[in-house]
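User: I'll paste a sequence; please echo it back and then give the predicted structure.

Assistant: Echoing your sequence first, then the prediction.
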Amino acid sequence: MSSTLNHAQLIANSQSNNESSLTQVVINTRPVERAAALTDHLQAAGLTVVEIPMLTLQPRPTIEQDMTLMRQWLAGDYKALVIVSPTAAASGLAVWQALEDERQAQNHDNDDDNNNERKDIAINALQAPSYLIAVGEATASVLNNAKIEASNYQVLQPHIANNEGMLAMPEIERLQAGDKLLVWRGLGGRRLLVDTLLARGVHIDSIAWYERIMPVEAMAQYEQWLQGFLARNDMQDTSASQPKPIVVVSSGTAFEHWESIVRAVAEKVLEQDTAREIPAILPYKLSDFAYVVLGERLANMVAEQQLSYWRVEDLAPETILAAIHAKAC
């Protein structure tokens, strides 16, 4: 049986209490299914990592409008398909295969092939009617590792997985007024390319295969971590300076969830201490943390609140570690 301790437990190298108390603490807010690579990389570099996911991914029902857009894409109505995440890739690929299976079944109504044989035919027959552009290596891997003949399509990637990198791709750069682009994404996710291409007259449709919600246990995980963190600080040598914990945030939605939790826990602490002349613990504020954030939009959100941050352009663990080291200098 799982408990709220599981995802918020401290993940650290085997160090003494004095050493771990002064080690840079990093809070990884990535969804559970996307957190491990970053946590492992930072831990291997000697950092203390705590996982407190601010997002969980929840599938959305596929509606008729989604199917209509998929059929239009398969009919060749779009110049390119942009896929923004591994989850979007997996969800879209499943529907694509189902539609191709349906088409193959109709074409073989008079055949003696059984259903499994028809399904194999459908999967192997998938051919992309437009450019396939994956934002990031993990997204591309979902498509490249599927049970599909490699010759049927090529997955393209920008050199840098951000808006500027996408716009620099020839397949995007040549889009003009009247052209259509389809995007597979999550509800409320980054709207890559939208403003620039709309200004150019390009028509953009999107299918949101999933949505991001706050995990129900997120506040309890944060509160428990904070209590332990402050308790360790109380026990350490007062002459030593504990660096600000660094929070890795990859989306505006995740930051909004983080902001609401930090404020709620701080208010709770203040309410509990109103009867005391001296608070039991000081409530932690957003400014008591430093941030590593992805992209311009999120950087602007953090900058508006005058918070200390470092902006990165991709979520590769090596990139995030380099940003953390830069902030420490």
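The first strand starts at residue 10 and ends at 11. The mean pLDDT is 83.
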